[in-house]
Amino acid sequence: MQRTALAMPPTLSPRGLQRAAAAGYVGISTSKFDEMVEDGRMPRPKVIDRRKVWDRNALDIAFDDLPDDGDAKPANDWD
């Protein structure tokens, strides 16, 4: 019996990530990830039929845009 070749080569990272994998990719819990998607710090998912998939490249861009430790902007101009 021949196996269907759906698995990716081990050297190729998937482009689309499910919610838990996307959260893990950026190093946070799924609840924090949901919060960050809601407030715009992380990207919204792509939709494939009814399935939500996060683009790894968009996650990289959003992660790069997060402030570095010590670079946090003040809450307002008076701080």
Structural overview:
- It is a single chain.
- The protein contains three helices and three strands.
- It has helices at 19-26, 30-38, 56-65; strands at 16-17, 46-48, 51-55.
- It has a three-stranded antiparallel beta sheet.
- Secondary-structure element sequence? EHHEEH
Arithmetic mean pLDDT: 89
What is the tally of beta strands? Answer: 3
Structural class: alpha+beta
Q: Helix share of residues?
A: 25-40%
Shape by Cα distribution = elongated
Radius of gyration: 17 Å
Q: Widest sheet: strand order?
A: 1-3-2
Unreliable sequence segments: none
Discrete helix count: 3
* Largest β sheet strand count, sense and barrel closure: 3 strands, antiparallel
**Content of β-strand:** 5-15%
Measure the end-to-end span: 68 Å
What labels would you give this structure?
single chain; 79 residues; alpha+beta; 3 helices; 3 strands; elongated
SSE order and pairing:
Blueprint: E1 16-17, H1 19-26, H2 30-38, E2 46-48, E3 51-55, H3 56-65
Antiparallel strand pairs: 1-3, 2-3
Helix pairs in contact: 1-2
